[in-house]
Amino acid sequence: MAAKKPRKALGRGLSALLQDSETSNKSSDLERNISDVESAAGINEILISQIEVNPFQPRSHFDKEALEELAESIKVQGIIQPITVRKLSDDSYQLISGERRTQASKLAGLKKIPAYVRLANDQQMLEMALIENIQRENLNAMEIAISYQRLLTECNLKQEQLGDRVGKNRTTVNNYLRLLKLPPDIQLALKEKKISMGHARAIINIEDVDKQLDVFKKTINEDLSVRKVEALVRDIVTGKTTEKESPAKKEMPYEAKNVQNKLSSHFGTKVGLKIDGQNKGEIKIPFLSKDDLNRILDLLEVDL
Prior knowledge:
The protein is an alpha/beta fold. Helix content is about 50%, strand content about 10%. The protein folds into three domains: about 15-125, Conserved hypothetical protein from pyrococcus furiosus pfu- 392566-001, ParB domain, CATH 3.90.1530; about 180-245, Arc Repressor Mutant, subunit A (Orthogonal Bundle), CATH 1.10.10; about 255-300, no CATH class. The strands form two sheets. A five-stranded mixed sheet has the order 1-5-3-4-2.
């Protein structure tokens, strides 16, 4: 399998955070307890068996087939991009980023793996894990939105700081965060890519949840484009109607309703009766099966 081209970092990104983690921990107990901090500047070969999983890893599912493909690539080409870990003790490390590469390396039968060794506290671990997760190519809009929200709440970041971390402006960040206000059904459809980010951004402009769900269902059932959904939402927000309202049905006269009820009782099914102003009309007698039809024909004394 051909190696993927290296991706351009987003904003300050993970590398900047790693630099921050080294700087901010110079006076920490962890640094005082670890004698070889200078090794953090280079790449180390460490035993995979000494690496603990990242408890702050936001990604819980790894595609088995994709892992096996990566493992085959590692057997041929080795690890192209080192993982990043923090050192807990002389023979214990904890993943910061690269869990997928680590799992694939195990499948490939490797005993050691190249790694950058860094110093980081728990909050920095969480922040690094979330930002690395955001930088993946195949995230859906809801996964990005949830990661943004976690960075704001659990890492105590402001939106401007978050934008700097992930290389996005405040408007883009806010557009993702607004998705979290949508009803669960719409969030799930967005996560499963049944609708796009454009569809969701249009629907969220409707304040009434029931109307949001109505537009969502119409979008799914009629496979509406983003432009059509935007037009539909615009009409709802401005108070316009997009469909002709059906005229109110006239109340059936008492005599006609009485006849309809008697016919329904006689045939054992709900009979439809229409009568116009000239006393012309029609009678509809529904049936549910061939046997039901024969039953009605018997009542009509019709021989076939």
